[in-house]
């Protein structure tokens, strides 16, 4: 079973940057596609970005395209989300998710607050 732990969240001013990390323990992440999601208060969980098992393919939602960059280091069992040009509407709890066929695992989330 994969255990995921997100980190790197915090308070940042509009226009600022944060780098989120998703660290995995247990089986290697090599077998898993990884996605980043977020959930703001009163809203549904939103898919933001995902990356293929070997890092060769990635996807971004319209809301973060051009501002966020997903990357992974399978040797370190680590997936990152670089977030630039942050906006107040990016405020949410951010989660990573590992998927391999029917096996799906979530982290506990990390809070990102964008405010002046």
Account of the protein in words:
- With 116 residues, the chain is mainly beta.
- It has no helices and 11 strands.
- The protein has strands spanning 3-7, 10-12, 18-25, 33-39, 46-51, 58-60, 68-73, 78-83, 92-100, 103-106, 110-114.
- The strands form 2 sheets. Strands 2, 4, 5, 6, 9, 10 and 11 form a 7-stranded mixed β-sheet that branches. A 4-stranded antiparallel β-sheet has the order 1-3-8-7, with no helix packed on it.
- It is globular and about 40 Å long.
- The termini are far apart.
- The mean pLDDT is 95.
Essential attributes:
single chain, mainly beta, globular, 0% helix, 116 residues
The geometry reads as globular
Count every helix, treating DSSP H or I runs of 4 or more residues as helices.
0
Give the ordered list of helices and strands.
Answer: EEEEEEEEEEE
> What structural class should be given to the helix and strand makeup?
mainly beta
- Which regions have little confidence, pLDDT < 50, spanning 5+ residues? none
| Alpha carbon gyration radius | 13 Å
Strand content: over 45%
Question: Biggest sheet, in brief?
Answer: 7 strands, mixed
| Separation, N- and C-terminal Cα atoms | 40 Å
Total beta strand runs: 11
Mean pLDDT: 95
**Fraction of residues in helix:** under 10%
What's a concise summary of this model?
This protein has 116 residues and is an all-beta fold. The chain has strands spanning 3-7, 10-12, 18-25, 33-39, 46-51, 58-60, 68-73, 78-83, 92-100, 103-106, 110-114.
């Amino acid at each position: 079973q994969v255990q995921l732990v997100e980190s790197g969240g915090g308070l940042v001013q509009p226009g600022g940057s944060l780098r989120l990390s998703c660290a995995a323990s247990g089986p290697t992440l090599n077998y898993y596609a990884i996605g980043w999601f977020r959930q703001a208060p009163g809203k549904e969980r939103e898919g933001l970005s995902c990356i293929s098992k070997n890092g060769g393919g990635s996807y971004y939602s319209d809301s973060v395209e051009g501002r966020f960059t997903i990357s992974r280091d399978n040797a370190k069992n680590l997936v990152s989300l670089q977030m630039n040009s942050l906006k107040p509407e990016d405020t949410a709890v951010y989660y990573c998710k590992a998927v391999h066929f029917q096996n799906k695992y979530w982290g506990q989330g990390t809070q990102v607050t964008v405010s002046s």
